[in-house]
């Protein structure tokens, strides 16, 4: 990795990450309370508890951190930035709850704890995921997040495009198909380009949207919005390659979930396509590409630069 960037940003990254995670945890705790919002009839306690299990008490909160830090570049107030970040995190948590289901990745542990369908049951987990997804859009569409209806519509659109048919959900479908879930039942051997497309949809789209949403919240000019989306796209790709590498190299204790599952299931990864060393080189290249995308920003973007290196260097 290049050492030409100031290390103080890297040193401050852990502090900023922890501060944002704590603030997001507090905000999510309030959003997932039993208290009714206007128009709601009741909040079933078991559903609230399952949603809280899926969303609270763990995780790096990288996505809302990216939203907050991108918004910070344009002087957005912290309450608004955190609400937008919380919406992104609610959507991310929904995806984890559903990914862990037996019909999907069939995982028993997440963040070192039983997954929602193990702690409760499959039906409750499905409804908890549905409710987290819906709540994400509820929070983003609320005037408390931004007074402009036009801005809120742009935020909702960015989140929907990242989450849906052409983004995360579509990527999950491609992943299931590659595993051989349909037709012949045989796993497919995907080419490098196909793997990159799958990963850009399943993981990268929401990471890029996390950055884009912060910029939209702050009314970023088109040129800076484009640069930040380029940053987010490269960071998302680096994050996923790093995740694939960790699945090979890390222990279940480090990750808080089962490892070596990609190879066992024949999952399409760049480790499989490029080899472990090749995947590491690509991870580092993508991290530097993300940093380079921020060339038009000054020192105020150093924390985002450090986040790009963190995405590649992380050990969990």
Automatic annotation (TrEMBL):
<dbReference type="GO" id="GO:0004659">
    <property type="term" value="F:prenyltransferase activity"/>
</dbReference>
<protein>
    <recommendedName>
        <fullName>Probable farnesyl diphosphate synthase</fullName>
    </recommendedName>
</protein>
<dbReference type="GO" id="GO:0016114">
    <property type="term" value="P:terpenoid biosynthetic process"/>
</dbReference>
<keyword id="KW-0460">Magnesium</keyword>
<keyword id="KW-0414">Isoprene biosynthesis</keyword>
<dbReference type="Pfam" id="PF00348">
    <property type="entry name" value="polyprenyl_synt"/>
</dbReference>
<comment type="similarity">
    <text>Belongs to the FPP/GGPP synthase family.</text>
</comment>
<dbReference type="InterPro" id="IPR033749">
    <property type="entry name" value="Polyprenyl_synt_CS"/>
</dbReference>
<keyword id="KW-0808">Transferase</keyword>
<dbReference type="InterPro" id="IPR000092">
    <property type="entry name" value="Polyprenyl_synt"/>
</dbReference>
<dbReference type="InterPro" id="IPR008949">
    <property type="entry name" value="Isoprenoid_synthase_dom_sf"/>
</dbReference>
<dbReference type="GO" id="GO:0046872">
    <property type="term" value="F:metal ion binding"/>
</dbReference>
<dbReference type="InterPro" id="IPR053378">
    <property type="entry name" value="Prenyl_diphosphate_synthase"/>
</dbReference>
<dbReference type="GO" id="GO:0005737">
    <property type="term" value="C:cytoplasm"/>
</dbReference>
<keyword id="KW-0479">Metal-binding</keyword>
């Amino acid at each position: 990795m290049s050492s030409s960037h100031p290390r103080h940003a890297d040193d401050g990254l852990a502090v900023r990450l922890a501060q944002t995670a704590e603030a997001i945890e507090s905000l999510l705790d309030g959003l997932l309370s039993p208290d009714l919002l206007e128009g709601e009839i009741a909040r079933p306690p078991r559903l609230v508890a399952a949603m809280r299990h899926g969303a609270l008490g763990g995780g790096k909160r990288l996505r809302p951190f990216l939203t907050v830090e991108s918004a910070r570049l344009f002087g957005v107030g912290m309450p608004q930035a955190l609400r937008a970040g919380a919406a992104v995190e609610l959507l991310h948590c929904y995806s984890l709850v559903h990914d862990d289901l037996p019909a999907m990745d069939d995982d028993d542990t997440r963040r070192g704890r039983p997954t929602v369908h193990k702690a409760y049951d499959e039906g409750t987990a499905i409804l908890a995921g549905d409710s987290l997804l819906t709540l994400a859009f509820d929070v983003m569409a609320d005037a408390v997040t931004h007074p402009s209806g036009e801005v809120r519509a742009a935020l909702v659109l960015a989140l929907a495009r990242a989450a849906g048919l052409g983004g995360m959900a579509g990527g999950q479908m491609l992943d299931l198909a590659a595993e051989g879930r349909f037709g012949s039942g045989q796993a497919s051997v995907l080419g490098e380009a196909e793997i990159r497309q799958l990963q850009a949809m399943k993981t990268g789209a929401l990471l890029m949207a996390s950055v884009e949403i912060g910029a939209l919240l702050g009314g970023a000019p088109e040129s800076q919005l484009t640069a930040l989306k380029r940053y987010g796209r490269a960071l998302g790709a680096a994050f996923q390659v790093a995740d694939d590498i960790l699945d090979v190299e890390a222990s279940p204790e480090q990750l808080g979930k089962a490892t070596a599952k990609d190879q066992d299931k024949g999952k399409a990864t760049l480790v499989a396509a490029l080899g472990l060393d090749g995947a590491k080189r690509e991870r580092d290249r993508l991290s530097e590409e993300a940093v380079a995308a921020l060339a038009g920003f000054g020192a105020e973007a150093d924390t985002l630069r450090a986040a790009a290196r963190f995405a590649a260097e992380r050990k969990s």
